[in-house]
């Protein structure tokens, strides 16, 4: 694409790509000098030029090199969003775009939409679990990647026959403007609870970041709001730039998409769906009440975007397993093992509430988890306290420690476990910790492995390294138990 098509009055230079990291610049790229939290792109303009940048967009003075077109703009971020959309052919305008935000449930809700809506319209998925469309899937970089990656991935989906995309939208992504030029047709809100205060500082700031998705919606779009989420519902109604519908179970009153007479079991759930189109029975293989909220959000979003309920509801009986999200690990053992991505206080509350409900007959809960380094430190003790109240034993371990010592993080978590009256132990190696918890389990117990789900990497001080995933680690531990017995306890 010619530079003149991206910037009025610019020369007829062929542009081959876009970059906001000088290390990713290739000959013919446009480099955008963005000011980040830890670095200023203006400081790397020279390296970008050395790497072959054809043009550099900047807001502050930079040293100029021969053969490079320098474009001064007051707001480089705005230019980046505009150019990304143009360079990749406005892919979000060619797709029915679902954007899912909220503290918990984004991955499950977006995955349900991608899987079920595809029966009507081919629908890709972008989020924490993967970037996937059709039979293709790859590991993501972030929940909500940068603008270049977002538009590039959406263009790739459109080129491979997708007509829709379900995308997780994080508070970080919203506050950093990563989706400012994405044309969303449907914005979905799951819930608002404590998270990411290391970045946002206050719950008010966190909620304001989430609101951006709804403030920027186009007039003919639709928002799907959780009527039972007291912390968010009124604020979102007030700021929505488009029409909205609600979903819920009647906790705070009626909703447009209501689940009544909810019947939960360990194998699945049944409920009555009440909408303006009437009353319909629903059966699903999803377990736990909070997943029914995720399902209701998905039902409302898909229906508002044109999928008939009569076509949709039969498909809900066998929703594809979302790896690492309330994933039941069964290798024939006489106790339960569930892997879940829960890593927030609210997520812990809901998972343990479900755990209590299915281990009433004398069974105990054993939990394995840690907490991320260089992230919200306040919640570490809170997570420990929640687990301590519900568990017979807590095994604390590493969980993306980054440049912190896993043992130091574990000490804080264990202090919360102890203060709540629980018992815990620290085992640094995560695979060993999972094996220990599984060997401790007795018939009727439940082992909850929380925090990473199916993530295939672990963050340490020197970057991201491969990790087999909690689900695979659990399967391996169960097979090892079956082959070798419980053996000696690991100290």
Automatic annotation (TrEMBL):
Pathway: Cell wall biogenesis; peptidoglycan biosynthesis. Keywords: ATP-binding, Cell cycle, Cell division, Cell shape, Cell wall biogenesis/degradation, Cytoplasm, Ligase, Magnesium, Nucleotide-binding, Peptidoglycan synthesis. Belongs to the MurCDEF family. MurE subfamily. This is UDP-N-acetylmuramyl-tripeptide synthetase. Its main location: cytoplasm. Its EC number is 6.3.2.-. HAMAP family: MurE. Residues 324-453 form the Mur ligase C-terminal domain. Its cofactor is Mg(2+). Coiled coil: none annotated. UDP-N-acetyl-alpha-D-muramoyl-L-alanyl-D-glutamate binds at residues 22, 143-144, 170, 178. Residues 14-62 form the Mur ligase N-terminal catalytic domain. It comes from the Bacteria. Catalyzes the addition of an amino acid to the nucleotide precursor UDP-N-acetylmuramoyl-L-alanyl-D-glutamate (UMAG) in the biosynthesis of bacterial cell-wall peptidoglycan. GO terms for cellular component: cytoplasm. InterPro entries: Mur-like_cat_sf (IPR036565), Mur_ligase_C (IPR004101), Mur_ligase_C_dom_sf (IPR036615), Mur_ligase_cen (IPR013221), Mur_ligase_N (IPR000713), MurE/MurF_N (IPR035911), UDP-N-AcMur-Glu-dNH2Pim_ligase (IPR005761). ATP binds at residues 102-108. The modification N6-carboxylysine is found at residue 210. Residues 100-301 form the Mur ligase central domain. It is found in: Cytoplasm. Carboxylation is probably crucial for Mg(2+) binding and, consequently, for the gamma-phosphate positioning of ATP. GO terms for biological process: cell division; cell wall organization; peptidoglycan biosynthetic process; regulation of cell shape. GO terms for molecular function: acid-amino acid ligase activity; ATP binding; magnesium ion binding.
């Amino acid at each position: 694409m010619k530079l003149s098509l991206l910037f009025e009055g610019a020369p007829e230079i062929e542009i081959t790509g876009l970059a906001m990291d000088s290390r990713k610049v290739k000959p013919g790229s446009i480099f955008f000098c963005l000011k980040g939290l830890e670095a200023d792109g203006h400081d790397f303009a020279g390296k970008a030029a050395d790497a072959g940048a054809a043009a550099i967009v900047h807001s502050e003075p930079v040293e100029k090199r021969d053969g490079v077109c320098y474009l001064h703009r007051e707001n480089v971020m705005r230019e980046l969003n505009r150019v990304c959309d143009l360079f990749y052919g406005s892919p979000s305008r060619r797709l029915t775009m679902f954007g899912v935000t909220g503290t918990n449930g984004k991955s499950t809700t977006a995955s349900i939409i991608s899987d079920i809506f595809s029966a009507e319209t081919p629908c890709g998925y972008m989020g924490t679990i993967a970037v996937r469309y059709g039979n293709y899937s790859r590991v993501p970089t972030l929940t909500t990647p940068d603008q270049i990656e977002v538009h590039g991935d959406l263009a790739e989906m459109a080129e491979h026959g997708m007509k829709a995309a379900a995308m997780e939208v994080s508070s970080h992504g919203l506050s950093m403007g990563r989706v400012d030029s994405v044309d969303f047709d449907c914005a979905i809100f799951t819930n608002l609870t404590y998270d990411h205060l290391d970045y946002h500082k206050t719950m008010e700031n966190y909620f304001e970041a989430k609101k951006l998705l709804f403030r920027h919606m186009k007039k003919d779009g639709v928002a799907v709001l959780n009527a039972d989420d007291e912390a968010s519902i009124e604020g979102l109604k007030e700021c929505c730039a488009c029409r909205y519908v609600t979903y819920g179970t009647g906790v705070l009153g009626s909703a447009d998409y209501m689940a009544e007479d909810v019947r939960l079991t360990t194998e699945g759930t049944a409920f009555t769906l009440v909408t303006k189109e009437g009353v319909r029975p629903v059966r699903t293989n999803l377990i736990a009440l909070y997943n029914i909220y995720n399902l209701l959000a998905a039902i409302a979003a898909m229906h508002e975007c044109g999928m008939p309920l009569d076509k949709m509801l039969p498909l809900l009986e066998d929703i594809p397993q979302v790896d690492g999200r309330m994933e039941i690990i069964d290798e024939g053992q006489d106790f339960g093992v569930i892997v879940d991505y829960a890593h927030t206080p609210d997520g812990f509350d809901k998972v343990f509430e479900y755990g209590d409900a299915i281990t009433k007959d004398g069974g105990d809960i054993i939990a394995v988890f840690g907490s991320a380094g260089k992230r919200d430190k306040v919640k570490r003790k809170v997570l420990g306290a929640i687990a301590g109240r519900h568990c017979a034993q807590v095994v604390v371990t590493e969980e993306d420690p980054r440049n912190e010592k896993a043992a130091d993080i574990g000490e804080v978590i264990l202090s919360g476990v102890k203060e709540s009256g629980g018992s815990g132990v620290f085992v640094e190696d995560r695979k060993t910790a999972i094996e220990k918890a599984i060997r401790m389990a007795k018939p009727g117990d439940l082992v909850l492995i929380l925090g990473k789900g199916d993530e295939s990497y672990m963050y340490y001080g020197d970057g991201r390294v491969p990790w087999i995933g909690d689900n695979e680690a659990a399967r391996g531990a169960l097979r090892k138990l079956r082959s070798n017995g419980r053996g000696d306890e690991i100290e």
